[in-house]
Amino acid sequence: MDVKNYISDGVETFEAVINGERIQWDSGLTYAKHIQTKELLSTQIPVSDKPDELLFIIMHQTMELWIKLCLHEAKIALKAIQDDRLPNAFKTFDRIAAIQRHMIHSWEVLATLTPHDFLTFRGYLRKASGFQSYQYRELEFVLGNRDADLIVVHKDDEVVFNQLNLALETPSLYDEVLRLLHRRGFKVPEDLLERDWRQKYEPNDQVEDQWKVIYENVDKNWELYTLAEKLTALEYYFHEWRFKHMKTVSRVIGYKKGTGGSSGVSYLSKALELSFFPELWSMRTRLDEPYTADDAGNPGLDSRYPTDE
Q: Is 34 in the same domain as 50?
């Protein structure tokens, strides 16, 4: 095969016809250099000689990569909300939702690991556990679920420990959303606008009232209504991911304790009760129908739609 080489933009460039296609590459940046293929593929280092451990490692490595991207995008959305650029935030939330759906389905790959398969190498993992995923913890902190006690397992890694502390000391995505509501003229309690960000956010009746106003006046508050639905979708998919995680663990190890000492499935089940944006869920119960089913054909008969008669 003939390969031509020449200099283009100061870089040695190569060209060849392969299967009828004129293919070019150069000595500057290749696919492998850009993606760091060799480095990436060298990081799967089993601690046992059991064949199914490779699946376990790759599954969790890819999950960490997707969490990294979710974190990256969540911070972009948070900055857009700070700057009152909601359409930009919406685009980012849509990308996060697509990532989350992919992460949810990825549990099905790990679910092919049978109890026997996992037990062949589980003992080699010692106390290594997903509980120690600092990226997952940071993502929870950024979205709004704060629990400072959880970072104690990272105290021996100064860089990670400081990174998580910074996330705790910075307003979360939901904190910034409440500040946005305040800037838009909604009655958000002052003590929620400047508070100890390390503390867990507690649901507030007045905040719930404001979301109810937004949902009852959708046309008037379209941007904020859309923002609320994007946030609800984010939490919806997060819980679906948690649920699939819990069911996958249940399928593989039953109700054994986790390698890190947690109660395993029971611990993961409790996480399903956590909420990033609590009032967006509680408010839904209070929404009223604009008119009754009996009056669906004639809304004017409803007392909330008075007629001239």
A: no
Instruction: Walk across the sheet containing 4-8 and list its strands.
Output: 4-8, 11-18, 21-26
Q: Which residues span the domain enclosing 27?
A: 4-38
Grade residue 294 by pLDDT with cuts at 50, 70 and 90. low
Mean pLDDT of all residues in 195-207: 96
What whole-number distance in Å separates Cα of residue 95 and Cα of residue 66?
11
Please tell me the total count of domains within the chain. Answer: 2
Residues 98 and 19 in one domain: no
Position 248 pLDDT exceeds 60: yes
Computed over every residue of the chain, the mean pLDDT equals 92
What are the E-state strand segments in the chain?
Answer: 4-8, 11-18, 21-26
Joined together, the tokens standing for residue 41 give 């593929």
Is the sign of the CA dihedral 177, 101, 212, 285 positive or negative?
A: negative
What confidence score (pLDDT) does residue 158 get? 96
Q: Both 17 and 51 in a single domain?
A: no
